[in-house]
Specification:
By secondary structure, the protein is an alpha/beta fold. It has helices at residues 11-19, 31-36, 70-81, 93-99; strands spanning 6-9, 23-27, 37-38, 43-44, 61-65, 87-90, 105-107, 114-116. It has a single domain (6-116), classed as 3-Layer(aba) Sandwich (Oxidized Rhodanese, domain 1).
Length: 120
């Protein structure tokens, strides 16, 4: 497979882009993972059913995201095979995002309630 360049973005870069409305963050994890914990503003397009033509690619730059960075790279390669150019993904995925101290929306396993760490 011909591998074009996929850009690694840091959690801080992705957070700034999201805050400015510059990107469309696409989470390629599965629905159960997304339901349990997600980045605010991320859209779910699971890798298992990933269709490059189904993504809304107009307007904002796409940034792909998963749990650790592996599946987002696979999704980037699928998009490139479908004719999309240079792509960006969140290096290290949601694990790196949380390690950087950035907020997620998650299910509290004690109560079953949704917790938005980004709400002040």
């Amino acid at each position: 497979m011909h591998d074009k360049h996929v850009i690694d973005a840091t959690p801080e870069q992705v957070n700034a882009w999201l805050a400015n409305g510059e990107i469309l963050l696409v989470d390629v994890r599965e629905a159960n993972e997304y339901a349990f914990e997600r980045i605010h503003g991320a859209l779910l397009y699971p890798l298992s059913t990933f269709d490059p033509n189904a993504l809304p690619t107009e307007g904002r730059k796409l940034v792909l995201q998963c749990g650790s960075g592996k599946r987002s790279l696979m999704a980037a390669h699928k998009l490139q095979a479908a004719g999309h150019g240079q792509l960006t993904h969140l290096a290290g995925g949601i694990q790196a995002w949380k390690a950087a101290g950035l907020p997620v929306i998650r299910i509290d396993v004690q109560t079953g309630r949704v917790v938005d760490d980004g709400r002040r």
